[in-house]
Amino acid sequence: MKKNLLAALAALGPALAAAQEDAVVVTATRTARPSLQVPASVDAIYAEDIRQGRPQVNLSESLGSVPGILVQNRQNYAQDLQVQSRGFGARATFGVRGIRLIADGIPASMPDGQGQAATFALGSAERIEVLRGPFSSMYGNASGGVISVDTEDGPPEPTIWGDVSAGSFDTWRAAAKFGGQWGRVNGLGDISHFETEGYREHSAATREQANAKLKIGLQDKSSLTLVANALEQPDTQDPLGLTRAEYQADPTQATPNALAFNTRKSISHQQFGATFNRGFTDSRLQATAYGGQRTVQQFLAIPLAAQAAATHSGGVVDLDRSFGGLAVRYFHNLAQSLRFSLGAEYEQMSEHRRGYVNDFGLQGALKRDEDDTVASTGLYAQAEWKFAERWTAHGGLRSSHVRFRSEDHFIVPGNPDDSGEKSYDAITPVAGLLFRPNEQTTFYGIFGRGFETPTFAELANVNPPATGLNFGLEASRSRHFEAGAKAILPAGVRLNAAVFRIVSENEIVIDRSSGGRSTFRNAGHTDRDGVELGAETLGAGPWAARVAYTYLDAVFRESFNTVTGTPAVPVTVPAGSQLPGVPKTVLYGELRYQRERFYARLEGLYKARVPVNDQNSEFADAYATLNLVFGLLQSNARWSISEFVRVDNLTDKNYVGSVVVNDANNRYYEPSPGRNYTLGVQAAVRF
After folding, report:
1. Which residues pair with residue 266 across a beta bridge?
2. Does the CA dihedral 646-651-653-659 come out positive or negative?
3. Helix runs in 254-407, H state only
4. What are phi and psi of 124, to 5 degrees?
5. In 3D, which of 72, 255, 7, 40 has the Cα closest to residue 656?
6. Over the stretch 255-303, which tens digit does the pLDDT of each residue have?
């Protein structure tokens, strides 16, 4: 029996070794390290999980299996996804804030912390890495978490891929990809077209995307990587949120104001970047430069009477943005027991922002004209010291400087010159200790500090009769504590567990929200106490399973006052109120079966009820959903084809998938569709 056991363990060894290899992560230490050697909560999702049996349109498709991360599809492509990490980012009413987004080493978040997940090209993504906790602060401003997407390299042989899917609500996507290796040059290009009429009225969208990567091997252990990305999303309709009564009457409807003001958004985005790597005997130097431009025109539903106010910026947002940055990083191994890295980063965003009256869907008179600039500078150092056989110390320190500047060109009676500037500075340390009793088990503890400046959107308004930008708004600062364990069990199961506490001060909250205009202020403290558990099976058997559980108690420690509603009404937010948009419990489960020519997958998600405003006067109900996927696989030495059918919301549950926090008109609810279908074909040919 002993011999049989030893033989079984020996057979399992290669699978365990492969599993450890698969778990290599980069974001926490900025250099490739096995997850078991990193004292941080970090997960990686690979290409097969991103694409197999999925539409490849939204991050929400594949990040449900990551504990601590909640990606909610608003069913509204004009406002992008709602992404949060341990509660950071939950207050975003559009786009992504409070979480650092990175694509191929290049920031997809602006220096003020605002970002867009729509620019990620999932059709050519090799992996998505997700970092939570204290090490996120090494990325500077608004790093409550980090989501990093890496484009795959071209394969050794030239290969062309095709991908077509179609489904409910007149939704379809077509994509093509080509890549290969030619001597020292490796390249890959990906283009896609996506259209939908939308689940709700007035929610149609069209998205065209291109992504390219060229990697050139140079002499002397050097390489140059060039990346380019483009997104065109014209006239994306915005159905707006619904009141509870509207949602219960007809969840597919748009609000009357969305139709009356023809709410919509157009986006054009292009960026380019280059990264040079030079390897030495015990060190590596990396330099990155990037630049791009983004234009946005958005029509909002704001009553004409409110837009008529002298200091109101109008119901049409028209911005023309350029952005860019530079980074230099140096990595050195002093010995097997000591590694360190140094880095300097500079980012800048400049935009010409104009506002006009939205005259029932038509652009009217000019109401705002300004040039806004935000720039950030960061210096950091990180080190790893293995001071004993089973013990390793990790540490880091970052200095960040963020400067906002606005030049007002719209100066008329009742609206004086609102120009101004403000800077924010922070020193954010992180320190951790890791203990490995054996090669498959890790225990760790870690502490760090973070900070989050306001975005330009949060600085934009002050309460009348004051004018100008809200430069009295301070940055929120946080302290993070985390303890965790990671293990690969002999049975072929990877386990991750973490408990954490986060204390924030000067939390940025709504001060007044009425008439389509929001102002912000700093509150006292917020407390976030949580538990994250993740488990997945490993090995080559036909069955596989994955579970992710998050418990998060996120509350305001002190009471504060706010003004909200139409008409505006003073409200007291009691101490102990939950942070809006943050569920206490999220549970994801996945069961997979795969053979050589067939696969099936069952996905389940449970989310606890969610408060929709600071005072917790209303909640979106808890819900549980199931998704089912079936696929066929055919291949030979030169080609492969896969067909799949996907059924989302298998039980036809009526539920609210996302909320618009603190909406002044009580239109908090963004319904998700009932049972819906997607059919797709994915093919590849090697030359």
Report:
1. 297
2. negative
3. 256-260, 304-307
4. -125, 20
5. 72
6. 999 999 999 999 999 999 999 999 998 999 999 999 999 999 999 999 9
SS (H, E, C) 398-429: EEEEEEEEEEECCCECCECCCCEEEEEEEEEE
66-87 pLDDT per residue, tens? 999 998 888 899 988 889 999 9
- The β-bridge partners of 93 are none
CA torsion 8-11-15-17 (nearest 10°) is 110
Contacts for 400 with CB less than 8 Å, ≥ 6 apart: 140, 141, 376, 377, 378, 424, 425, 426, 427, 428, 451
Q: How large is the greatest C-alpha to C-alpha distance in the chain, in angstroms?
A: 92
Closest CA to 564 of 497, 616, 489: 616
* Structure tokens that stand for 176 in this block: 């093509």
- Measure the CA–CA gap between 19 and 22, rounded to whole angstroms: 5
DSSP 578: B
* Residue in the block written with tokens 């609500």: 169
Reduce the DSSP state of residue 365 to 3 states and report it.
strand
- By residue count, the chain amounts to 687
Share of residues in the chain with pLDDT > 70 (%): 96
**Using an 8 Å Cβ cutoff, are 426 and 83 in contact?**
no
Residue 685 reports pLDDT greater than 90: yes
Q: Report helix, strand or coil for 17.
A: helix
Count Cα atoms within 13 angstroms, Cβ side, for 266: 10
Q: Read off the pLDDT band of 19 (50, 70, 90).
A: very low
N-to-C CA span, the chain: 50
In angstroms, the CA 285 to CA 329 distance is 6
What number of CA atoms fall less than 13 Å from residue 392's CA on the CB side? 21
Q: Confirm whether pTM is higher than 0.90.
A: yes
Q: Apex CA 650: angle with CA 646 and CA 654, to 5°?
A: 125
Locate 17 and state its tokens. Answer: 């070794």
Residue 549 has which token pair? 């559980």
Beta strand pairing status for 569-573 and 525-537? unpaired
Place of tokens 């999303």: 233
Q: What is the DSSP string of 609-650?
A: -EE-STT---EEPPEEEEEEEEEEEEE-SSEEEEEEEEEEST
Q: Pairing state of beta strands 100-103 and 145-151? A: parallel
pLDDT digits (tens, 9 = 90+) for 168-215: 999 999 999 999 999 999 999 999 999 999 999 999 999 999 999 999
Which residues make Cβ contacts (< 8 Å) with residue 97, sequence separation at least 6?
Answer: 89, 91, 113, 114, 115, 142, 455
